[in-house]
Design a protein that fits this description.
The protein contains one helix and 14 strands, in the order E-E-H-E-E-E-E-E-E-E-E-E-E-E-E. With 162 residues, it is of the alpha+beta class.
């Protein structure tokens, strides 16, 4: 910027007022960018959650999602693979012997039920086998009555609201 200094000569540069204004604009941009980037990269931002009762299925031999149906379903709940980003499976190596499942979409969805199949049997996580169900975490115990369970599928029921 060109301006007149005392004595009629020309100077280039910013005045103090212009410098403060430019710093404020740069500071606002620097503060806003990480907020926008964080909101786009969060797991919950990755999907738009539908409203209703749904379930996802997890293959115990691969710890990955599959398209199997729940061994004991809840009336009105349907499989919805779009909710897979809401479900994080944590195991200690072998998913056949019990897992912990975390809800990554807890602000819009809650875990409402769960079951797992082993052979022709269907199990629900209970305190007696070291398992539990809460809106944000499900734990499938590794044994029932002291006998190791070899799970083949896990089914997580999720209710999402507006």
């Amino acid at each position: 910027m060109l301006r007149r200094a005392q004595g009629g000569r020309s100077e280039t540069g910013l005045s103090r007022r212009e410098m403060i204004r430019a710093a404020a604009v740069a500071g606002a941009a620097a503060w806003t960018a990480p907020v926008i980037i964080d909101s786009l990269s969060s797991p919950a931002a990755a999907i738009t959650t539908p409203t209703g009762c749904f379930f996802v299925s997890i293959n115990a031999s691969t710890c990955g999602f599959d398209d199997s149906n729940a061994c004991a379903s809840i009336p009105g709940c349907t499989r919805n693979d779009l909710l897979q980003p809401c479900v994080q499976v944590v195991s200690n190596g072998d998913c056949n012997g019990g897992v912990t499942v975390n809800n990554l979409c807890s602000t819009t969805c809650q875990f409402t039920a769960a079951n797992a199949s082993a052979g022709s049997n269907c199990y629900t996580p209970t305190q007696t086998d070291g398992g539990s169900i809460s809106p944000n975490t499900i734990v499938f115990g590794a044994t029932i009555g002291g006998v190791a369970i070899n799970y083949s599928q896990y089914h997580i029921f999720i209710t999402c609201g507006p």
